[in-house]
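PROTEIN DESIGN WORKSHEET
SECTION A - STRUCTURE
LENGTH: 260
TOKENS:
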């Protein structure tokens, strides 16, 4: 996609005023609710094109990514947010993001990502495609597919402690949270076709997750842990819990608020 077409269809940056306000609010909220530590700022490039990737254990994760990023990231995310507290569901709508219906190949989201990156923009995506578990799960193909199709380099982030924010607030405590910013890697190219192409894209997805795993506590690395016991305990977490009824999320919300 040429830059002129990209600027017309998917301008970057956009919503400058509202995003500036939300960025300030996100910074204030994170500072009030948590004891935050950010490391690896030296790995932040001056500008894109760039794909931001991170683990996804909490609905607060996009807010943390906005807090840590010096540029206003665009996001590709799920159309449904079945386990997000109501207080957080209005933030994506105000910020603006490019929605994807789970289980479908969104040409619109891909074209949007291509348009943003063609303008040296920054696109955020959570490869696990949901925050229903607090250990790393295998990547869905979206992040790796975007990396291959756009040729953008990838910047990994690791979030720790955000899954404890709400439970700690209920107890009158601030959660200790950490954002670790890794080193840029990629870009990736895939020349194979058919099943071989899918295998290569899947392996890129695994590499993305391994890079993220190195930035989070060992006990949270799940499927990407070096410890067989941790990998065994993570089995089953990769299953999407709302496959039959995406709206039936009340028990998952209770689990979210009960986390210690």
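SECTION B - SEQUENCE
RESIDUE ASSIGNMENT:
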């Amino acid at each position: 996609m040429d830059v002129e077409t990209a600027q017309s269809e998917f301008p970057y940056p956009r919503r400058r005023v509202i995003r500036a306000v939300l960025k300030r609010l996100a910074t204030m909220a994170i500072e009030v609710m948590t004891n935050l530590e950010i490391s690896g700022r030296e790995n932040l490039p001056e500008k894109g094109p760039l794909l931001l990737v991170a683990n996804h254990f909490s609905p607060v994760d996009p807010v943390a990514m906005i807090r840590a990023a010096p540029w206003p990231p665009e996001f590709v995310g799920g159309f449904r947010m079945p386990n997000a507290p109501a207080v957080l569901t209005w933030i994506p709508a105000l910020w603006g993001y490019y929605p994807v219906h789970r289980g479908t190949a969104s040409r619109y989201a891909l074209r949007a990502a291509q348009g943003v990156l063609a303008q040296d923009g920054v696109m955020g995506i959570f490869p696990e495609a949901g925050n229903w578990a607090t250990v790393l799960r295998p990547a869905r193909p979206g992040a790796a597919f975007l990396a291959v199709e756009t040729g953008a380099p990838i910047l990994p982030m690791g979030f720790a402690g955000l899954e404890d924010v709400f439970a700690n607030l209920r107890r009158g405590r601030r959660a200790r949270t950490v954002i670790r910013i890794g080193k840029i890697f990629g870009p990736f190219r895939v020349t194979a076709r058919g099943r071989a192409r899918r295998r290569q894209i899947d392996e890129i997805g695994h590499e993305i997750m391994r890079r993220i795993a190195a930035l989070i506590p060992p006990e949270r690395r799940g499927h990407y842990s070096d410890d067989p016991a941790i990998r065994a305990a993570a089995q089953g977490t990769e299953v999407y819990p709302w496959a039959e009824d995406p709206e039936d999320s009340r028990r998952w919300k209770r689990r979210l608020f009960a986390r210690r």
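SECTION C - NOTES
The first helix runs from residue 3 to 9.
The chain has one domain: 3-258.
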